[in-house]
Design a protein that fits this description.
Distance between the termini: 29 Å
Number of strands: 8
Number of domains: 1
Mean pLDDT: 88
Strand content: 15-25%
Radius of gyration: 18 Å
Helix content: 25-40%
Amino acid sequence: MLMNIGGALPAKTDMACQAQPNKYVFCIAENEEDSPWEPLSVERGFHRSTSTVSVVGLENPHNINDHDALNGMEILSTICGTMATLGNNNVRGALGGDGDAMLALGPEHAGTIAKEGFSKKDVLDYLYEHARVPRKAFYERARMKHYPDMPEDYMVPPTIKREDLHLIVVGGPGKHSSYMPGHMSHLVTRAIE
């Protein structure tokens, strides 16, 4: 289907080293009813009654499995550990590229975090400050190429700017969430006419 309908011809129109279908068709809806926060559309300036669609290029979802956390800070700690990896596109992008990333919280994780008074902005601010990779974790050539003037203890943020990190609430019952790094793509939201 990807080749015949989507035109994804290896080494011709699809230059990916390891292709996967969600770069063409991954589509999810926010669970606005079970979210403790405003939906992405409202955050992006639309009235709650306006139907919208948002598009951004992202990696496959990285599962965040935490059935043990009893409070929001414990869940945020697990999320930080999932986001702060050496090989995801955003961390590599933060070394010299640009792009948005998306955190998709399940309603149970979102509810636990919100019960402690965290707004959506609080969550994103916290993750931007704490889901970082130490510069010294990268090999020497990468450090010198991308951060030659930064101290060894510099912490690489998950995205270049805090505004490039987004949060939605999706799915149903269960203590799973996901993180989707992106690369060289920014979120666009439009009203559905």
